[in-house]
Design a protein that fits this description.
The complex is a heterotrimer of chains A (306), B (369) and C (247). Chain A has 306 residues and is an alpha/beta fold. Helix content of chain A is 32%, strand content 28%. Chain C is α/β, with parallel strands linked by helices and 247 residues long. The chains are: A alpha/beta (306), B alpha/beta (369), C alpha/beta (247).
């Protein structure tokens, strides 16, 4: 496989804080790679290193074969970057922002309009509105347009969907999928675990370390223990009770259900069910399920803490 | 080049879209100059003067009429010795004394320069400064009409001596002073603020990630403010000339050159500051404390440099506005040419060069280091 | 009446010609966890500000904790707690100093503050960070402390504005368990969130679209009504076709 992004042993410290620790990551050409982790995991630092804004303390990285330290000038021509915080000119209009970014990359809106057309038609009615007065979802779309207007080879998106409502988030991902067909490599970070399913591959990151890298489909094979889904009337009581049972490795709320991990060596579905009924909880809907990205992430978090 | 123009265009959009910026840019200079000028105009009116006329001929009579005819002064008594002058100061009858030299008439008739002595009661130094300056202006204006058309300078120059504060100060001090102050404010503070704003709002990150060079960013930022500072300087000069009768005795080209140079100094300072501050707040503080305050206090704009303690006098040498004020005064009032002003021009040029290099080297292609 | 701690009747807010909140009405019961959802720009923040007595309604009325938001705004503020993701504690003060400050604002005695702080820290297992600067503690702990802080003056109702944004999934769940505990103690919870799985943790959920409440029920009933598998789907069905989405 040919790699668009190759990161080897990158570390970065800020004073006492180790922001990144020996990060290794490879992203194939034309892939959508999801970088998933909570705030403070080191995602933004990694982005700033890849966008040539920061120098790593250790390690090296190259994008499409260009080194982030040596070839930073060339990289700045071929990268599209959307920072975590909305970073366009709030006092310029939608159109003025886009035009400015097109020009500084030595291109015009017209030249690459086909790339942004689908997104931009939604923004067009507001093209004379100042960017600061757009809604969260619209701001993200404009930022994406500005990052795309010079037809970058690699798109680096830092938390493009944070703080955006579910509908806008879904639309945003659809746009990324379409861009991917143009053979643009995308590295996108998110704190929302459910967005992992939209990526070709995901890397889970926490406390400056990559916990695991895998495809969304394969990642569940990493799960240790057997996962059960439980539901009853009084969920809070169920949670407390289940957590106290023998053989239960973990127990967390997942929306309207509980996800309970049991050690298959010492426990099984029936044992949980009977243990619960001896504690007075009999009306429980219980079924085995496959682990999702969030389950895995939580398990890896606990493992790395231990 | 296209990138550069795109940047300049964007910068102008920021400026013209923000009412507050516009107000600082254009409201402030006009307000400042009017406030200073107005305060000044109110202060000198019908001040008492004693005259020690050693000449007593037709020419001196004419001069005394001129002084009396102005709205600023009236003659309260004739005196015949220095002691009497001091006495009338002590009695509070007069604030100013004019000594007309014996050879005044003779000098003027022979086309030579003659010098009046003006003595002021400097117990209130600011007032004394103003009175002397007004007297200088009145006598210069008064004698010009009588002078041969070929002569550019008035034949009679007043040579003031101040008791207790023996310094010559010009009434026109405030115009160059305000000009220096405004140009610093507009160029240095505003540029440092706009760059800090780009950092604060994260847009600097996007600019750095783009193929724009540091030079694009710097010159793109500097150009609009250079133009605006220059317009500002012109507004102040025109106001000074039309509203406050400021003379313009020297070369206009030189005047324009110094305004352009000083704006550049200020811009270099602004960029230098912004490379060391990450927020508008910090940029504002550094500009205020590091630039505007020293300019007001140490440039000789308000407080005479000669009265400062030796350390501050030393520091005043590196205050760009000090040299700027000297040059502007030289050009406008004394009508001095480049040969005379070479030293202050040279010093200002060096300061500008130093900060320009420091500023350009301070803008890094990355976020850290 | 005693069971109804929030009563909203035809509450409306207009900014010029734009109606941000359009005649919304609902009740919240004591000890209920009430989820307040909506897309960006749907009017959530405006409605929440009116309920906290920070913004006067253009029309309609609301009682919070038994006080009228229009005429008794100061009383309302005394009886509610508020926590948002954006602003919670002063980073340059220690945990203890933050609690002392907020306690002082609500006129609690130093003794009471000390007692309650000790209690809360013990419950969270964070006794050791009492004298640590807030700046130096991890985000997850900060969120939990902010929540405790908002409860310091024992308010009957607590407003939480996206309290779990950006927090790791384990901390997020621990946070919700704190919410459950508070609700079990009789505190009414009014919460906004962007995580749709968290909507499931609420007793009832309202979804705002274009300034109106377009759905209000328990998550289970809403899923049935909209024939949806998850709250995410319910939300999407409702938010599609919203006209103000860009505004």
């Amino acid at each position: 496989m040919e790699y668009a992004i190759e990161i080897e042993g990158i570390s970065k410290r800020y004073g006492d804080v180790q922001a990144l620790q020996q990060i290794d990551l490879r992203v194939g050409k034309g892939e959508i790679m999801g970088l998933i982790g909570p705030d403070g995991a080191g995602k933004s630092t990694l982005y700033r290193i890849l966008t040539t804004l920061l120098l790593p303390d250790e390690g090296s990285a190259s994008l499409n074969g260009y080194d982030i330290v040596k070839d930073y000038r060339h990289l700045r021509q071929i990268l599209g970057y959307m920072p975590g915080r909305f970073s366009l000119y709030q006092d310029l209009t939608v159109e003025e922002n886009l035009e400015f970014f097109a020009t500084i990359f030595g291109t015009t809106i017209k030249e690459n309009y086909h790339l942004i057309e689908e997104i931009y038609v939604q923004l067009e009615p507001f093209k004379d509105r100042q960017a600061g007065n757009l809604s969260g979802g619209m701001k993200q779309k404009l930022a994406l347009c500005c990052a795309l207007i010079h037809k970058p080879e690699i798109l680096l998106l830092d938390e493009p969907t944070t703080g955006v409502d579910p509908v806008s988030r879904q639309e945003f991902w659809q746009m990324l999928k379409r861009l991917n067909t143009e053979n643009i490599t995308i590295l996108v970070s998110t704190p929302y675990m459910d967005e992992a399913a939209m990526c070709d591959r995901v890397a889970l990151i926490q406390s400056g370390e990559i916990l695991t890298t895998s495809t969304p489909a394969n990642i569940r094979t990493e799960y240790q223990g057997q996962l059960l889904s439980l539901k009853s009337q009084d969920m809070y009581h169920l949670l407390k009770t289940t957590r106290s049972l023998d053989g239960v490795m973990s127990c967390y709320s997942f929306g309207e259900r509980l996800h309970v991990t049991i050690d298959p060596e010492t426990s099984n579905l029936e044992m949980v069910q009977s243990a619960l009924s001896t504690k007075g909880i009999s009306k429980v809907e219980i079924k085995p399920i496959e682990a999702g990205v969030e389950d895995i992430f939580m398990q890896l978090l606990k493992r790395s803490d231990a | 080049m296209k990138k550069y123009f795109a940047f300049v265009k964007k910068e102008f959009r920021h400026i013209f879209r923000d009412k507050k910026t516009l107000l600082i840019l254009f409201g402030m200079p006009v307000a400042q100059i009017l406030i200073f000028g107005f305060a000044l105009n109110n202060e000198v009116s019908d001040a008492g003067v004693v005259v020690y006329d050693m000449s007593g001929d037709y020419e001196s009579e004419q001069l005394r009429t001129t002084i009396n005819a102005s709205n600023y002064f009236h003659e309260v008594a004739q005196v015949h010795s220095i002691q009497e002058i001091e006495a009338s100061f002590k009695a509070g009858n007069a604030k100013l004394a004019v000594i007309i030299p014996r050879e005044l008439g003779n000098d003027l008739r022979n086309g030579r320069k003659s010098t009046l002595k003006v003595i002021a009661d400097a117990s209130d130094p600011n007032e004394a400064q103003m009175l002397v300056a007004y007297m200088t202006a009145v006598t210069m204006k008064g004698t010009r009409g009588k002078v041969d058309a070929k002569m550019e300078l008035p034949l009679v120059t007043a040579e003031p001596r101040m008791i207790f504060n023996p310094e010559l100060k010009s009434v026109y001090m405030f115009v160059p002073g305000v000009m220096g102050f405004i140009l610093l404010l507009v160029s240095a503070m505003m540029t440092s603020l706009t760059i800090a704003k780009e950092k604060e709002f994260g847009t600097m990150e996007l600019l750095l990630v783009s193929p724009l060079r540091s030079t694009h960013i710097i010159f793109g930022k500097v150009t609009p403010y250079w133009i605006l500072s220059f317009i500002n300087a012109m507004i102040i000069i025109i106001l000074g000339i039309t509203v406050f009768d400021m003379p313009l005795n020297g070369s206009v080209t030189l005047l324009i050159a110094i305004c352009l140079l000083f704006s550049l100094t200020a811009l270099a300072l602004g960029i230098f500051i912004s490379s060391r501050s990450n927020s508008q707040m910090t940029a504002m503080f550094i500009s205020m404390l590091g630039l505007l305050l020293p300019t007001i206090l140490l440039s000789g704009f308000i407080f005479p440099i000669e009265n400062m303690p030796i350390v501050l006098r030393g520091v005043s040498h590196i205050i760009p506005a000090r040299w700027f004020i000297i040059i502007i005064k030289g050009i406008m009032i004394q009508g001095a040419g480049l040969s005379i002003l070479l030293k202050p021009f040279g010093i200002l040029g060096l300061i500008t060069l130093f900060f320009s290099v420091a500023a350009i080297r301070g803008v890094k292609p990355r976020l850290d280091a | 009446m005693s069971d109804r701690v929030i009563h909203v009747d035809g509450l409306t807010k207009r900014f010029g010609s734009f109606t941000a909140v359009d005649h919304i009405s609902f009740d919240v019961k004591r000890g209920e966890i009430f989820g307040f959802l909506g897309a960006n720009g749907a009017g959530k923040t405006t409605a929440m500000r009116m309920l906290c007595g920070l913004l006067d309604p253009t029309e309609g009325n609301a009682d919070v904790a038994g006080f009228n938001v229009l005429t008794q705004a100061e009383e309302v503020k005394k009886h509610i707690g508020y926590m948002s993701q954006k602003f919670s504690m002063y980073e340059d003060l220690t945990v203890k100093e933050n609690f002392e400050f907020y306690g002082g604002v609500y006129r609690l005695s130093q003794k009471t503050i000390k007692e309650r702080l000790g209690e809360m820290l013990a419950r969270l297992g964070l006794d050791h960070i009492e004298k640590t600067l807030v700046h130096d503690i991890p985000l997850g702990w900060k969120q939990k402390l902010s929540f405790s802080l908002a409860l310091l003056h024992r308010p009957g109702i607590i407003f939480l504005d996206e309290p779990t944004g950006g927090v790791d999934p384990i901390t997020r769940r621990q946070f919700w368990e704190m919410i459950y505990e508070a609700a079990a103690d009789g505190v009414t919870i009014f919460v906004t969130t962007h995580y749709m799985d968290e909507a499931e943790y609420c007793d009832r959920v309202s979804i705002m679209v274009d300034g109106r409440i377009s759905a209000l029920d328990s998550p289970e009933n809403l899923r049935k009504e909209f024939k949806a598998q998850t709250m995410d789907e319910v939300f999407r069905q409702l938010a599609r076709g919203a006209k103000n989405a860009a505004g």
